């Protein structure tokens, strides 16, 4: 299994983000992952980091589909590919109604149908294909002089879908290269997410998509475990109040988000990561809510693990 860490969402000067990515690479991590809302642009930060790193993979987890037309996103992603020697993993997702309708003022009806159309055209745009697609929600025409996205030196990046929902998992299996989950435990992954994804891919005659699971991870002394457990539960309390995560907690036999995390000393973290490997996960990336000392201690430990 491979391991990565989240870049973090706390506002920082751009050089600080790049320095974090450089440290992650030096520590031996396979990947760095960044969410995308309306602060620093993840694809731009990754492009900057391309000049000072050489091999760490750079993943978005995830860019909301409603915030960028697929042709615009394809152009941005290919630019980042060219700047990083083709190390981007392009994760996209539907996000949540509160963001799409409340912040963007967009229509969030039938998000899975919109996602299917979006992911259906995005790989074709990344490949520079000329086509005219007029769907129910997505419209794009690259047959004219204005159409195609293309950046010299850029290969089409793999496209991953951030989801845990059955309809979207079916679309991901049929159309995408992988799936990214957030705060989903190994039981749900093994019994629900991965079988649906693999069945859809097999039915479509496609290779098995990769599965990347994002969870809170903090490596700490046993005496400090309770402190970090309380921190995770506090930071994610409103998040797990959503009905979909209530179902995840119930399925996992969990009482709070910290039960879905990997928190504790070296052996506790390794044992928890093994549960995800046993579930069929290909990669786990950690989100650390503690200070930078804990963040880089955790990153260094993950980077030292045998693959």
Q: Evaluate the radius of gyration.
A: 19 Å
Largest sheet: 8 strands, parallel, barrel
CATH fold-level topology: TIM Barrel
Number of helices: 11
Written description of the protein model:
With 307 residues, this protein is α/β, with parallel strands linked by helices. It has one domain (2-304): Luciferase-like domain (TIM Barrel), CATH 3.20.20. Helix content is 44%, strand content 18%. It is built from 11 helices and 12 strands. The protein has helices spanning 14-27, 42-49, 70-84, 97-103, 111-126, 166-175, 186-203, 225-235, 243-252, 266-279, 292-304, and strands spanning 2-6, 31-34, 57-60, 63-64, 88-93, 132-134, 139-141, 159-162, 178-182, 210-219, 262-264, 283-287. Helix 7 (186-203) links the parallel strand 9 and strand 10 (210-219). Helix 2 packs parallel to helix 3, helix 3 packs across helix 5 and helix 7 (186-203) runs parallel beside helix 10 (266-279). The chain starts with a strand and ends with a helix.
């Amino acid at each position: 299994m491979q391991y990565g860490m989240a870049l973090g969402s706390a506002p920082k000067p751009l050089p600080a983000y790049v320095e974090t990515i450089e440290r992650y690479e030096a520590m031996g991590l396979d990947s760095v992952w960044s969410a995308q809302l309306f602060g620093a642009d993840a694809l731009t930060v990754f492009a900057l980091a391309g000049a000072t790193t050489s091999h760490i993979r750079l993943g978005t987890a995830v860019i909301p589909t409603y915030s960028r037309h697929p042709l615009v996103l394809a152009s941005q992603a290919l630019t980042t590919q060219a700047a990083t020697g083709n190390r981007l993993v392009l994760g996209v997702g539907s996000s949540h109604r509160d963001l799409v309708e409340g912040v963007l003022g967009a229509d969030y009806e039938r998000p899975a149908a919109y996602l299917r159309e979006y992911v259906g055209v995005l790989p074709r745009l990344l490949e520079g294909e000329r086509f005219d697609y007029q769907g129910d929600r997505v419209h794009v025409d690259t047959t004219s002089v204005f159409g195609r996205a293309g950046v010299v030196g850029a290969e089409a990046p793999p496209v991953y879908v951030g989801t845990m929902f059955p309809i979207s998992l079916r679309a991901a299996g049929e159309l995408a290269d992988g799936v990214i989950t957030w705060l989903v435990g190994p039981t749900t992954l093994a019994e629900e997410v991965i079988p649906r994804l693999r069945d859809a891919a097999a039915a479509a005659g496609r290779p098995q998509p990769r599965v990347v699971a994002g969870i809170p991870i903090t490596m700490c002394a046993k005496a400090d475990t309770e402190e970090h457990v309380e921190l995770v539960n506090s930071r994610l309390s409103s998040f797990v109040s959503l009905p979909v995560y209530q179902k995840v907690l119930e399925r996992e036999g969990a009482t709070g988000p910290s039960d879905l995390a990997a928190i504790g000393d070296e052996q506790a973290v390794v044992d928890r990561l093994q549960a995800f490997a046993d579930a069929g996960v290909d990669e786990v990336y950690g989100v650390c809510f503690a200070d930078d000392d804990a963040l880089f201690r955790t990153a260094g430990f993950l980077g030292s693990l045998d693959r």
